[in-house]
Design a protein that fits this description.
By secondary structure, the chain is mainly β. 9% of the residues lie in helices and 32% in strands. The chain is built from 3 helices and 14 strands. It has a 4-stranded antiparallel beta sheet, with no helix packed on it. A 4-stranded antiparallel beta sheet has the order 6-7-8-9, with no helix packed on it. Strands 13-12-11-14 form a 4-stranded antiparallel beta sheet, with no helix packed on it.
């Protein structure tokens, strides 16, 4: 992903909630989030990793945590992730995320944490038994600056369990929804590049950065949607576009092809 040399910023830590898959973070003080994510220094162009083990109820796009009122010791992320390496300038970064092969125990973590009092220890993900038998994936995410305008990304998944297990890896790139702020209504666009027909390539166009490209190894499927809140799902309202933020969840888990823009363009 092309990016300014001063723009590579880590976006590792984020507290996820169940409805976050459908809500776009549009207010200025709030930042976008994602697993092992990076962005430019203005957080206009964002990149992160999404995963699905074939059993989760939702696409794993961000870290899950409890709010201050839900946790018996306050706000608390219920995931396991580790920062393994980084240069002082973030020209190279490497992190590890541990993803269970069983369905993620969202409700169990919430219910047990609310049952416990402040004098009791926190109920952690390991306590749920979801890692029993080493049935989990180690997901390594690496970033390395090759040139001032060139970032290399490598995602490696290792099955630590005793049997073969399904895993879908969805690298995601999106524009932060700045047009909803009401100050600048211009919208950037990401589209399937036709100038490089022999490879999977996404072309980004933004008035500040010009053109950048996301080049993919092999021939992965490219899917597109808008970075817009799904008002119909969350609030029973109307969506400005038929393509909304949680379209990848609908497409991957439920096979809903109409959720994504088949003309291959959008903001995510």
């Amino acid at each position: 992903m092309g990016n300014g040399s001063r723009g590579l910023q880590p976006r590792w830590h984020s507290l996820g909630i169940f409805s976050a898959r459908s809500r776009t973070l549009t207010r200025l003080p709030l930042g976008e989030d994602g697993i092992g994510g990076i962005s430019d220094r203005h957080q206009i162009v964002c990149f992160g990793v999404a995963l699905w083990n074939g059993r989760d109820a939702i696409l794993k796009e961000r870290l899950f945590g409890l709010t201050g009122n839900q946790g018996n010791h306050g706000e608390d992320v219920k995931e396991y992730y580790f920062y393994l390496d980084s240069t002082p300038t973030h020209s190279y970064m490497r992190m590890l995320y541990k993803y269970p092969q069983a369905a993620f125990p969202y409700e169990t973590l919430l219910e047990e944490s609310q049952r416990r009092g402040r004098e009791q220890p926190e109920f952690e993900l390991l306590d749920t038994g979801v890692f029993s038998g080493s049935r989990y994936f180690d997901i390594f995410v690496e970033y390395a600056k090759a040139e001032v305008e060139d970032i290399l990304i490598r995602i490696t998944a290792v099955n630590r369990g005793p049997e073969a297990a399904a895993l879908q890896i969805l690298p995601q790139l999106w524009f932060r929804n700045t047009w909803s702020w009401g100050k600048d209504l211009r919208r950037p666009v990401a589209s399937k590049a036709t100038s490089v027909p022999e490879s999977a390539c996404v072309e980004l166009q933004h008035w500040q950065y010009g053109k950048r490209w996301l080049l993919c190894a092999g021939q992965p499927e490219l899917i597109f949607t808008e970075n817009e809140t799904n008002n119909a799902r969350l609030f029973g309202g109307r969506n400005r576009s038929p393509y909304v933020k949680d379209a990848f969840h609908e497409y991957v888990i439920h096979g809903n092809k109409s959720a994504v823009n088949l003309t291959k363009w959008g903001r995510k």
